[in-house]
Amino acid sequence: MSGDLKQSNSKALLALTLALVILGIWGRFLPHPYNFTPIAAVAIFGGAMLPRRLAIVVPLAAMIVSDLFIGLHSTIFWTWGAFALIALASSSYLRQRLNFSSTAALTLGGSVGFYLLTNFGVWLQGGLYEPTLSGLMRSYINGLPFFRNTLLGDMFYVGALFGTYYLIMAFTRQLSHSKASVSS
Fold first, then answer.
1. Is 129:122 a contact under the CB 8 Å cutoff?
2. What CATH number does domain 10-183 carry, 1.10.1760, 3.30.479, 1.10.3470, 1.20.120?
3. What is the pTM of this model?
4. Which residue intervals of 30-143 are DSSP H helices?
5. For residues 130 and 124, what is the distance between their CA atoms, to the nearest angstrom?
């Protein structure tokens, strides 16, 4: 199945939505390198599989709940906004073409977009970098180690989510085919 789950299958929709929110929260509490979390992957997978509104709500819910425990910070608008934009992009882009190369391109684009947007937000809010082009460049340069972890985490978790999904779908098809063969 590609695209959003059918509304008639509301139990599956609810289960997937809750599972993605829990994965997002859980991934932020596990020990991990900075920015190596499943939130963008949850946004990408949710965007491809859930109705658009839920796709946007899922990463935001995971961020809100986990940030309440981890701690609120001054860049919430930028981080939460970046994840909402990633979910929106996935919802628009991957529904048209859910395949490996499109998913990989969106994952890379999401990581780059997150890096550009959040580092711009840090610079714009002031305090760490002077409000000049040089200060903005310094913000981006200092963010590079975080970008590496963001990209690696996004690739890992997107691969794990879509890989698990396709394995489950293949197993389900095989099981259905086996049952059909036995009953014939």
1. yes
2. 1.10.1760
3. 0.90
4. 39-49, 52-70, 76-93, 100-125, 133-142
5. 9
* Counts of helices then strands in the chain (DSSP H, E): 7, 0
Tens digit of pLDDT for each residue in 8-57?
Answer: 588 889 999 999 999 999 999 999 999 999 999 999 999 999 999 999 99
Q: How far is CA 49 from CA 4, 20, 116, 117, 143, in A?
A: 4, 11, 26, 25, 31
Determine the distance from the C-alpha atom of residue 27 to the mean position of all C-alpha atoms in its chain, rounded to a whole number: 11
CA–CA gap between residue 60 and residue 161 (Å, rounded)? 18
The Cβ of residue 125 has, within 10 Å, a number of other Cβ atoms equal to 13
Rounded Cα–Cα distance for residues 78 and 84 (Å): 10
Residue 56 CA to residue 50 CA, distance in Å, equals 9
Task: Read off the tokens for 1.
Answer: 């199945």
Domain borders along the chain are 10-183
